[in-house]
Specification:
This protein has 160 residues and is an alpha/beta fold. The protein is built from five helices and four strands; from the N terminus they run αβαβαβαβα. The protein has helices at residues 2-9, 45-56, 68-82, 96-110, 133-159; strands spanning 36-40, 60-65, 86-90, 115-117. The chain has a four-stranded parallel sheet, sandwiched between helices. α2 (45-56) links the parallel β1 (36-40) and β2. α2 (45-56) runs parallel beside α3 and α4 (96-110) packs parallel to α5.
């Protein structure tokens, strides 16, 4: 009973990758008009919600992660709710060459890149004592090296 009540009190976007049923613009609806954002880890969770809010404010986005099927599904939902363009691209932030290809595709499609959101993350939901050495290494490679890799590629290809 308490679990059901707790679930009913959560905001609608918790536990779902569906777009918000309604959205009230806190900022100007065209705050990000014609900007382009590149969002790693954009296929679900926080990254998908960032993409949605950016798109509702006029931004076109690239959502990038390892699961292309999830990305394509998310891109369809996001474009339908916002009317903006969403390009789903498969990357692995641990592999700089995959990032290079995705940034090249972004620039080919949109001609610019204004915003980078490093949201890709590796997670193992367990106590640290249960985390293997390899699992911890994977988390560091994705969270730390992946952030550096993506930032460096975007800087070298566009911001520089």
């Amino acid at each position: 009973m308490a679990e059901l009540r707790k679930r009913q009190e959560l905001p609608e976007d918790v536990g779902s990758d569906d777009c918000l049923a309604s959205y009230t613009h806190i900022y100007s609806p065209d705050l990000l008009k014609d900007q382009v954002a590149f969002i790693t880890g954009g296929g679900s969770g926080i990254g998908l919600r960032i993409a949605e809010i950016f798109m509702r404010h006029g931004c076109d986005v690239v959502i990038a992660s390892r699961n292309l099927d999830k990305l394509k599904e998310g891109a369809v939902k996001l474009s339908a709710v916002s009317g903006r363009r969403c390009l789903p691209l498969r990357i692995d932030v641990r592999q700089p060459e995959s990032i290079v290809g995705a940034v090249d595709e972004t620039l080919k499609e949109f001609g610019r890149l204004d915003i980078l959101i490093n949201n890709a993350a590796g997670n193992f939901l367990c106590p640290a004592s249960a985390l293997s050495f390899n699992a911890f290494k994977t988390v560091l490679e994705i969270d730390t090296m992946g952030t550096f890799n993506t930032s460096k590629v975007v800087y070298e290809k566009w911001f520089k």
